[in-house]
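Section 3.1: Structural characterization of target chains.
Under the original work plan, the team committed to producing a structural model for every single-chain target entering the pipeline before any wet-lab resources were allocated. The record below documents one such target. The sequence was received from the expression subgroup and is listed exactly as submitted; it comprises 326 residues.
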Amino acid sequence: MVKSTARTPQPLAPNFDQLVSVHQLRLLTAVVEHGGFSRAGLALGLSQPAISHQLKALATTVGMPLLEVIGRKVQLTQVGELVHEHARRILSEFEAAGTALDELRGLRRGTLRLAGDTTVGIYVLPDLLGAFRQQHPSVEMRLGVDDRQGLYGRLVANEVDFVVSGRRWENPPVPLIVRPFLANELVAIASPRHRLARRKRVTLAELAAEPFIVREPGSGTRETTEEALEAAGLSVRPVMELASNGAIKRAVAQDLGVSILSRFATGLEVQIGHLVELPVVGFPLHRLWHLVYARDKRLGPVDEAFLHFIEEGSWKGIIGKPVATD
């Protein structure tokens, strides 16, 4: 029996992807597209020997010839056709990645992930994003609304890039950057039929004596209200606890009690006469929303543009206008 002398191709090295360079794939594609080494060299500004050297190294890595000359014409071998097919895909993906990066740097793509506590998330941030969208119409925007603990969880899990919250977190395990964002005034509200509605002056003690509708525990609005009353040696008599500004406003409008909410949340109802703002001595109560993000976060072009937009401040003149009830 005659033994075969044909060599069996050896398996590719496990680090094949590390031995092949994008430059080599680009040269192979150029030789094929331009029909030879000389024309490819002219198109790329490289010498023929330089191209030949790189493609020999590529063939050595593959373990089989990639090119052959038939009738003075450079052609791909069967192995070369396979490598060339994948090289075109790889180069196409690199070109697409470069285009995407250019678009991101030019803010023609990208995503802004923002979340806020209940009041700012409903009454302020949609207007803010609308103003940002006018400057950067191609940026995708995502807005979440959550309580303070939920916001912190989203930030730590990197589910959002920025959060807006009224209260700072004490001793956070993740270092944070906290920036002043927007003043928030809390006002006392009542039904137009309420006995205090036509008064020109209401003391804090008179307000505290009324049946009170309050937000849920942990709400920044409720905490600020309780702190102001405690500072005056007062407390309220809650008759209802609701986790929604909209539900509180409807309950107050139905004469179920009085409440204290953000002026941003009550503007439309006061404007159309469903609620009245009571002239309580010492009011409005003043709070401050903060813009918060992780100190170690690598800010991308969209993030940087958003921070610049916030600092520039022209958006403050167009937010919070009454457009709908909730």
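The chain is about 45% helix and 20% strand.
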